[in-house]
Amino acid sequence: MAKIGYLLPTRERVMEGRHETAPLLALAERAEGLGFDSLWAGDSLLARPRHEPLTLLAAVAARTAKAELGTAVLLPALRNPVILAHMAATVDRISEGRLILGVGIATDVPNVRAEFAAAGVPFEKRVGRMMEGLRLCRALWSGEDTKWEGRWDVAGGALGPTPHREGGPPIWGAASAPAGLKRTARGFDGWFPIGPTPDVLAERWADVRGLAREAGRNPDDITFAVYLTLAIDEDPAAADRRIDAYLENYYGQPGPVMRRLQACFGGDAAGAADWLRSYADAGASHIVLRLVGDHECQMDQVAAIRQRLGW
């Protein structure tokens, strides 16, 4: 049995020239009403413009009551960690402990490099910047007087409010390369890849668990979540065409190229159910879905699939 999450279409709506937030909040409320366990928002400044995720999730928190709220995924290196810690703590308070920070280092492509340059952040230093920044966030979330010497100098002061959850919101690392698996095993609360196949992920999940044991951690304390792209259609060929067009429009790369990097499924409800079950069987306890097509219709079908699976 796995939890099911819904990714809000912030990027898609901006690409369509529909910048209003009210429809996004309505989709969040609808998803929670259908039983989705979590609601998510992606992150980008200029490379793939969309609504700022933590700001949007604060509004979602005020409109929902049960669903967890997460970033899929946040780029912490683009933010001053003192400000990020303050924002995240506030959203965690608004949501009463429902925030999850999915984090990543960003893909090495020209428009993302340009985004980092525009933010005044050295792209080559993004991994160390992210890791130190998150350590500083956790120190600030303690609510104790914090002094820090490093990329950022904090001469002292206590952050307020502290997060609702003691220690702050859980942090899930999105990387799948060997170095990213080590980062997750040693210091993150969850692993949150974007694919590929269940068999490959099961092997990498076993690696994460083994690395966690080597680091003196209980691997059961790490959540395995996965980010998947789904189009449900009784005509599988039509669903596949829709996904390919969607990926090319979203990333500027051919759909088949992106499919090799990301887990996608286009097909009927029965096939979608089997596909989702395969990720749960691989060990994923939380599945976050990026839906392609009419979101209200797709959400209804996912809710029906969930009943079929007994989730």
CATH class group: Alpha Beta
Poorly predicted regions: none
| Count of helical regions | 12
Order of helices and strands: EHHEHEHEHHEHEHEHHEHEH
Q: What is the CATH third-level topology name?
A: TIM Barrel
Structural class: alpha/beta
Major β-sheet annotation: 8 strands, parallel, barrel
Record field, number of beta strands = 9
Secondary-structure blueprint:
Blueprint (H helix, E strand, L loop, with lengths): L2 E5 L2 H6 L6 H12 L4 E4 L11 H11 L4 E7 L6 H14 L4 E5 L6 H9 L7 H16 L29 E3 L4 H10 L2 E2 L6 H17 L8 E10 L3 H16 L3 H5 L4 E4 L1 H13 L4 E6 L3 H15 L2
Protein name: LLM class F420-dependent oxidoreductase
Pfam families: Bac_luciferase
GO molecular function: oxidoreductase activity, acting on paired donors, with incorporation or reduction of molecular oxygen
